[in-house]
Amino acid sequence: MSSRDLILGRVRRALADVPNGSRDAAVPRDYLREHGDRTTEQTVDLLAENLADYRATVHRADDDQLPALLARLLTERGSRTVLVPPALPPHWLADGGPAVLVQDLAAHTARELDTTDSVVTGCAVAVAETGTIVLDGGADQGRRRITLVPDHHICVVRVPDQVVSSVPQALERLDPARPLTWISGPSATSDIELDRVEGVHGPRTLEVVLVSGV
């Protein structure tokens, strides 16, 4: 008997007591859509708390304060070049300081992207309960590679429009056919001795700006 026959035999035995016609029955999805009853302000606070738990640096600003805040963050970082997606709102980096803005081009190689000091993007949605920001390749986020290669990523989240409580609520807003990137804190991994190393498969530093009044 082959391994395939053995596996299929076990599947048939496991389904032996299932009534005919019920294998395609709808599965009840009565799980909680969110945990707890929170106000919008509390949901945003939870997002900020969980982002910080994942070692992201969280900032808050009104829309009119955003350009000055981004300029300060880039200056403090010492960023000389900043990669920007094609449809990032121009006023976000109107006070960009000494940094040179680099428009993302399909011709850019990974090596060229690696020489860029920072990248600034928007996001598709942010999940409060998991401290996760989700990118879907939208025009203010750009291609997936531009948020994985540069070592410093500033992500702007519009509050409260782009903030949801839970993953199920986030999935309702997302198109599964788009290139989704789920980010919970800066890139990090651990070896067998649990020594943490950051920046292995994404930015070493993640800063999230929660901007209101947009």
From TrEMBL:
Residues 47-211 form the LUD domain. Gene3D superfamilies: NagB/RpiA/CoA transferase-like (3.40.50.10420). Pfam families: LUD_dom. It comes from the Bacteria. SUPFAM superfamilies: NagB/RpiA/CoA transferase-like (SSF100950). PANTHER family: LACTATE UTILIZATION PROTEIN C. This is LUD domain-containing protein. It comes from Streptomyces rectiviolaceus.
